Amino acid sequence: MNWNTILIRYGEMSLKGKNKSKFIRKLKANIKAALSDLGTVTMRAERDRMFIYTEKPEELDRAIEILPSIFGIQSFSPIVICAPTLEDIKETSLKVLGKTETAGKTFKVDVKRADKRFPLNTGELQQELGGHVLRVFPDLIVQMKKPEILLYVEIQHEAAYISSHTYKGAGGMPVGSNGHSLLLLSGGIDSPVAGYMMMKRGVSFDAIHFASPPFTSDLAIEKVEDIVRQLTKFGAVIRLHVIPFTELQQTIVKQVPSNLSMTTTRRMMMKVAEQVRKDTNSLGLITGDSLGQVASQTLESITAINEVTNTPILRPLIAMDKLEIIQIAEKIGTYDISIRPYDDCCTVFTPPSNKTKPQVEKVAYYESFQEFDDMVAEVASQRVTTIPSKQTKEDFEDLL
Ligand code: ATP
Ligand code: MG
Fold first, then answer.
1. 13, burial (CB in 10 Å: exposed 0-12, middle 13-18, buried 19+)
2. 188 CA to centre of ligand 2 in angstroms
3. Which of 268-272, 329-333, 352-356 bottoms out in mean pLDDT, i.e. has the lowest?
4. What are the pocket residues of ligand 1 if the criterion is a CB atom closer than 6 Å to any ligand atom?
5. Which residues bind ATP (predicted)?
6. Residue 319 or 347, more confident
7. Buried-most residue among 269, 271, 275, 339 (CB within 10 A)?
8. pLDDT higher than 50, residue 396
């Protein structure tokens, strides 16, 4: 019995036409990149499913560990392929079940008969197989709803597929199938979660981080690099652009009254991000704003900040509670990195009080005394770009 194949079922079944072929192409590329350490893995994609063939059983086990974090997969099952005859199906089913612990477990047979020429119909085959299995494994308990072991048998014209376990996939859409954006990544708890949520919707991104040395330390940058590495595990290489922000921030503090300086800081960040967005062919900007969480995240503040750009700003956390965000951060492994105690540029320069309802005209008035646009262009061009994960750009050629 050759236990080396995984059957992958896609998510987002409503996709049609061109979108669907792009979805499949991206998913295939992402899986290939994610499994690139495994040795020889071959793949075959069809309209509604994909097959992965490994050479060794250890590789199959490793693939089972990696696949649940890849977006665009609804579910997957390791399968054994046999001839589409009753004899072979019976024999292979017993072998497949022989690999799992059956004592006292609940059980059901699920048959999908794609080849209608098969001599038994679905119900008959279900009965026949169920009886056969129970004679050999009498300690299995038949249960129709949520059985612990689901013997899945699919009969196609050229072969039958048999599996005893279906794993849940991450859902969503393959990263890169829905365009490329730029994530404003602070090192706090929220922005990594915002990036993850957009990846789930198929968006790949570059990340931009504003650093203000010597007020912010190298450890703050290391932290952001670690977050980028962690996010890379969900399916895409991420380039990181670090912006030297000290001088611009000091100028803001000098030029703008303290209760408006946070608003101006955010507006300048947006302007710099806008420049980097254009240079990286990104379509949107992503932030970790959550409505009302802090002074800079009221609707009035958001309006004042948005005013500097026409680019769509994606804020996937806008309606989420902090607790929900923390739960996701824990699940995706960024929380422990985010709570490392290194200040980012905003914490260092935070004034004692911020206006929760900044007026755009006032902010623009104070900004008009300085050639901020020149400074924005300068810091954008001074960015330091790296790829913190070990993958290289070539591994993900399709995405960038
Ligand atoms: P986070 O937890 O993501 O730091 P926050 O709750 O601290 O968010 P703010 O400090 O108001 O909220 O930042 C709002 C958003 O602005 C962040 O989610 C991030 O997208 C962006 N941002 C803030 N500081 C930086 C920075 N130093 N570099 C890049 N982006 C930043
Ligand atoms: Mg923050």
1. exposed
2. 4
3. 352-356
4. 184-186, 188-191, 208-210, 287-289, 293-294, 296-297, 344-346
5. 184-185, 209-210, 266, 288, 297
6. 319
7. 269
8. no
- List pLDDT tens digits, range 32-73: 888 888 888 899 998 889 999 998 888 999 999 999 999 999
Phi-psi region of 381 (alpha: psi -120 to 50; beta: other; left: phi over 0): alpha
**Nearest atom of ligand 1 to the alpha carbon of 346:** 24
What does the alpha-carbon distance between residue 192 and residue 199 come to, in Å, rounded to a whole number? 11
Helix, strand or coil, per DSSP, at residue 386 = strand
232-235: list long-range contacts, CB under 8 Å, 24+ apart.
232/388, 232/389, 232/391, 233/69, 233/333, 234/69, 234/70, 234/71, 234/170, 234/175, 234/196, 234/199, 234/332, 235/30, 235/33, 235/34, 235/69, 235/70, 235/71, 235/174, 235/175, 235/176, 235/199
Exposure of 374 in the CB half-sphere (CA atoms within 13 A): 5
Rounded distance between C-alpha atoms, residue 100 and residue 164, angstroms: 8
Q: What is the pLDDT of residues 71-82, one digit of tens each?
A: 999 999 999 999
Hey, which of 181, 183, 185, 186 would you mutate to test ligand 1's pocket, going by the most ligand atoms within 8 Å of its Cβ? 186
Judged against a pLDDT cut of 50, whether residue 399 lies above it is answered with no
Ligand 1 atom showing the smallest separation from residue 208 Cα: 29
- Out of 181, 191, 308, mutate this one to test ligand 1's pocket (max ligand atoms within 8 Å of CB): namely 191
User: Rounded to the nearest whole angstrom, what is the distance from the C-alpha of residue 274 to the centroid of ligand 2?
Assistant: 20
Which tokens go with 135? Answer: 């004679």
Residue listed under structure tokens 């560990």: 65
**Ligand 1 atom having least distance to the Cα of 294:** 11
Q: Tell which one of 190, 193, 238, 314 to mutate to probe ligand 1, the residue whose CB is within 8 A of the most ligand atoms.
A: 190
Query: Residues 333-387: pLDDT tens digits?
Result: 999 999 998 777 666 677 777 778 888 899 999 998 889 999 999 999 999 999 9
How many angstroms is it from 262 CA to the middle of ligand 2? 12
CA torsion sign for 25, 28, 30, 36 is: negative
Q: What is the C-alpha separation between 213 and 229, in angstroms, rounded? A: 22
Residue nearest to atom 17 of ligand 1 (CA): 288
Residue 129: pLDDT above 70? yes
Relative to the CA of 286, which ligand 1 atom is closest?
20
